[in-house]
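Example record for the data management plan.
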Amino acid sequence: MKIEKSNLSIVSGKYFEEVYNHNNYLIEFNENKSDYPLPVAVIYFSSSGIYYPNTIDAFKKAFIDTENKFEFYKSDLKIKADKNIYIRDIAKQFYITGISKQLPSMDAVIDFLKEQTEGYELYTVGSSAGAYAAALAGCILGAKLIYCFSGYFDLNVIDTKTWFYIDKFKNDSNKSKYFNLIEYIKGSSSYIIYFYPGQLPNDVEQSQFIKNLDHVISIKMDSNVHGLCCSRSAVKCLMKMESGEAIRRMKDFSVKYSNQVIKNSTLIKYLYKNKWFFYYTKDIIDTILKQLNRILKKIYSGYIAK
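Corresponding structural encoding:
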């Protein structure tokens, strides 16, 4: 997503300072506990799409007028867990300045998350900048499995006009040490299931940094959507699986369709077998309904404005 220089993410001002002084995380415990030997904790990292456009009104609506604005919070894409942790970077700059005044760096965030997930089997989830954070925190904390959608793995090659904190903090070793995640991923035993859109050059470039790495299962989707670039039904199916089964099945899938660009129908066929057409059709209908809902909201907003 390209953001014009005149309309960059908000990183200062009274509203920003007010929200940056909040926790910017949410922790929930679930009554329907997981069935695994260890209790399960899942960390969901929000992306830079948490508010849009980059205006004061949109920022205020997302974080001041709305309660608990976190990606994945109200989503049906969930891993069955005893503890859900939702994290957001209101600066929308790859968590370079952490999430709050209390946790002003990625090191501080990771230390906090280590305390919160001690004794749990850990999963991390994110898309785009949230996938970057999920990969980083997941590898350092020893996550069992990381779900990564359209992730970034080297910030040194991305647009520094949009992501201006990269230039601002490139000489600050405490913050820039996480700009490149390759060594952290190589040194980790955490598995990453990684989906990326094969029609977007920037995503394809990022995919090359982790190509053929151990513990990374890369799936190149036939998509021009940055973020959740694959079927929601497929993701839901994977997230319901025990981690070992999800890893095994996606390993088998990546071998079977090695070096191919994957269509949603192919992925759903593999996961759902004889029931695939129902879920494929459901995805299409859900997408159409969401688009109609967005259109109606815009029409309604315009009507109210008049």
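Summary line stored alongside the record: The longest strand covers residues 121-127.
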